[in-house]
Amino acid sequence: MTSKIALPHVIVIGGCGFLGHHIVNLLLQQHPEAAISVLDLHTNNNRVPNVQYFDGDITKPEDVVAAYRGSKAQVVINTVSPLAATASAMAKEIYYKVNVEGTKTLLEIAAEEKIPVFVYTSSAGVVTDNINDLINVDETYPINPSNPDSYSDSKAKGEEFVTAFNGKGGVNTCSLRVAGLFGPGDRQMVPGMLSVLKNNQTKFQLGTNDNLFDFTYIENAAYAHILAAERMIHQLSSPPQNPSQKVAGQVFFITNGEPVYFWDFPRAIWAMYGGHVAPYQIKLGKDLGYALAWAAEWYAWLVKKEPGFTRFRVNYATSQRYFNIKKAKTLLGYQPLYSLYDGLEKSVKWFKDQEAATEQKKGQ
């Protein structure tokens, strides 16, 4: 499967990470004509042939300059980000350093090096307030200026800088707000749900499971990034007659376009994995969940540990959170490559294969 729109030299920032390496793999399939490079803090994971790798820190200008010049990049796809795992003061500092300061460095040097296209991985979480439901939200919905989630807040600030930078120094920018990523190589979503299964906790349910939620299979998110790069490259030489069709300067929500009731998703994973799914549920109401999470957070603060059960996670599992992707379909031509069901099957198979390989090594 190759694309009709050719891409020149492309550098994927964070190209050894979860989303980044899927973008690299898809670029190799769809754009055999392109010279593909990766800049990442460490490049020993998820390496593939026919790709040039640069070890470097995006907050260090000299590392960015070396990678841009060494790759002769004309397209930058910035996927790099710390895992959205904790709310500690140290984590907040790292989120800001990478997602805001690192993004600024990448953009400013892109302008200096005359790189015309910059695609930024944002997050659908930039619009959340951790209180109100997000129902079929589109890009007209405002960014939350005081996001209670430090990860989402850092992504929002990074996105705002990317949008404001559009056109400066000849750099065309756009941002993709991905939601609920899962798939092969996932370190959070699917592993977290499998741990619930392995700990025999499948009978517990937060809320009433009447809240629709958007999950996105990782290869679909990767595809959207490539489409954004293609459209901006194409529009450099063939600007759209209608300015509203211009991709540069825009933000896009990216999902599978198949919102499901939240708890149906992990139950599908558990069933595909072949695990026991309890035929009944012990349901904890949202208010009770908040109370228990508050107590867990307070106790964690007292003993100076990270809480495993938080009010944010209660809200995450009990709120409506789905998005309108009409804009991405219209301007980018985005249509998910894989259905949610297909994505789940591919994901579970990958995790089972990884576990089997690990067990085989133990037996040697």
TrEMBL record:
Transmembrane segments: none annotated. Residues 11-274 form the 3-beta hydroxysteroid dehydrogenase/isomerase domain. PROSITE patterns: PROKAR_LIPOPROTEIN. GO terms for molecular function: oxidoreductase activity, acting on the CH-OH group of donors, NAD or NADP as acceptor. InterPro entries: 3Beta_OHSteriod_DH/Estase (IPR002225), NAD(P)-bd_dom_sf (IPR036291). GO terms for biological process: steroid biosynthetic process. This is 3-beta hydroxysteroid dehydrogenase/isomerase domain-containing protein.
